[in-house]
Each structure stands twice: as structure tokens, then as C-alpha cells.
Fe2OG dioxygenase domain-containing protein (Tetracentron sinense), 366 residues
Amino acid sequence: MAPSFHNGGSLFDFVVKDGNGVKGMVDAGLSEIPERYIQPPEERINKLDANPNVPTPIDLSELDGPHHDQVVEALAKAAETLGFFQVVNHGVPVELLERLKDSAHHFFNQPPEKKAVYLKGVSPSPFVKYETSFVPEMEKALEWKDYVSMVYTGDADAIKYWPEKCKESALEYLKTSTEMVRRILEVLLGKLGVTLDNSMCDRYIGTKMVNMNFYPTCPNPELTVGVGRHSDMGTLTVLLQDGIGGLYVKVEDEGGAAGRKDEWIEIPPIPNALVINVGDTLQILSNGKYKSAEHRVRTTSMQSRVSIPIFATPRPMDKIGPLPQVVEKDGVARYREFLFEEYMNNFFGKAHEGKKSLDFAQITSP
Ligand SMILES: O=C(O)CCC(=O)C(=O)O
Ligand SMILES: [Fe+2]
């Protein structure tokens, strides 16, 4: 008999604790979403809200050619405004992009017991976790998403501990994208008058985590979300999405009229492109010049969707705060200094709530 998904307690155990995930719930047969997944009206995503005005992708290979200056301007402008852009000719082999999406499907299509071995508490490594939603214990409405996350702690660990179905492609993705991430950061910090050296690289993008996100088909996409409104905590995020669509980014309202409706832009799937977004850490480093992007994901009733982000973040023991050169120029520090571990604890200690994560570091004017 299919479990009853209208009883809150057993649903939570089945999906979260026993590791069946949203996928297990959908596979058990479901004609409508359980109450626990119904978002309050203001959090639901109306597909028609999306603004069709989407910037064209940036060709990173042109950083080495005669259009270098224009590409630098385009990267900086995107980071200062939307906090999101897409790149092509990024150096990650396009054939690998296809393999990554296949590996994500292979991992999630396994029976639940094969995935449950990576649940928190039983996973063979604290750096590999199979989870569902964001912080299920803290959320009033759960997110329609299962995922596996793999923190890079060296090749040997990755080969030993990362799931068989995804380790090869995930490791190659991580390695082939590292140079691109460094290059983008170099350009963005360069525009602030800061030269990126090796030790800064270690400090600002020294930890890399690859996630594989799986959004099963959903009977009521209009009532729930794949991922709720949030910004990423790190410096830069690289994201591979498949062709389904559903990723939305909020257009920052520059002190516009009160009560104005939020405007969201869909980041459309572009074959062979990668999506890059600014995280909270880069907003803080740049003293607010670059904007971490508030984004969210819609689900669909048609097909399951996969996306594969790499989060490039500081290491837990790194001290983070606005770059001194920028503070000097600005005459004021808008964020305080903190250990990145403290930022992480705050970030993972609460449900998604837009850019509230930045409040932790914000210096409020007296
Ligand atoms: O699935 C997506 O397109 C975005 C996922 C995301 O925002 C995240 O994993 O932080
Ligand atoms: Fe995100």
C-alpha cells in the first residue's frame, strides 16, 4: 500500500529521515502534492511573471582577444546589476556537460536504499550528503527537490567516497571549471583595483562543492517551489542546468516605489552555456558593489529537471570582510568581518528567506 502523504509525521519520516526523497514519494504514486509542500501564495511562482528580456551570454574566450575590455565591462556590469549571467566558450568540455546531466539522472534513478547510504549520520564521509529540501526541520513548506552534495577535499577522497554514479563526471567538472572561476574572479576584483593572487584565491574560492539537484515531476507546480528564494553564500556559483527551464532571478529594485511588485527574470536554458552567479561573499568582499543574486526554481509536471552547481566559497576558517582597498575608496565598510564558518552556520541554520542571509554581516547605520 502506498504510504499516506497527508499525515505530516509519516510523510516527513518517509521523505526526509528514511531517504526516499521527493522522488520516492512521486514514485509511490501521487495525484496531488501533500500539504507540507504547499507554499504560501506570496512564495508561489507564476510562470507568466517572468520577464522575457534576457541578456545574451558572454563569450569568455574573448577575454584573450581584441574584445577583452568589452568582455570585462560585460562581466562587471552583470555582477553589479543582476548578479547572474551566462557564459559560453568557458573551457568546460561540452561533452562533459551531457555526461554530468546523465550522471545526475543515474544517481537519482537508483532505488532509495542506494541513495540512503549517503544520508547525514550514516554517509561514509561528512563531505558527501544526500538530502532533500534545504533545512527540512526549519521549513514550514518543504522544497520539491532532492540533492547530493560533494565537498572537494582531494582526489583520493573524491574517488573513495563520492557516489560511483557521479564521481567521475563531478570531479572532471570541478577541475575543468576551476580556471574559469579564477579568471572571472580576477576580472571582477581587477575592476575594483584589487589584484588576485594565489593566497587570495585560496581564501575566497578555496572550498569547492559540487551538488547534483533533482527536481522530480510535480502534480501541482503552481503550488510549490523547487527551491525557495535565496542567494548563494559563497563567492561565485557555476551552474549547469538542463533544457527544462524554471530558474528565476530577482531584479534588484534600486529603492523603487514601495509596494511595487517584484520582477523576476527567467534564466533560460542555453545549450552548452553555464550560468554564473554572484554569492553573498562576493557582495561582502566588494563592499556591496557586486550583488548576490536572489533566485528560485519552479518545478514542472512534464519532466524531472536536473541542475548541477559548483559553489566556490571561502574555507571555514578564513576571515571574510570587505576588501580594504574598496573600503578605503568607499570611505565606509558596509559589512563586518567574520569567520566564514560563522556565516555557514547562520546560512544553514535557517530556512530560505531571500537575501536575509546577508543580515548576518551587514553593518546597520546608527
Ligand atoms: O536548480 C537551479 O537552477 C538552481 C539551484 C540553486 O539555486 C542551488 O542549488 O543553490
Ligand atoms: Fe542557489
In short: Residues 230, 232, 295 surround fe (ii) ion (ligand 2) (CB under 6 Å). Residues 6-360 form a domain with the Jelly Rolls fold (CATH 2.60.120.330). The chain has a mean pLDDT of 93.
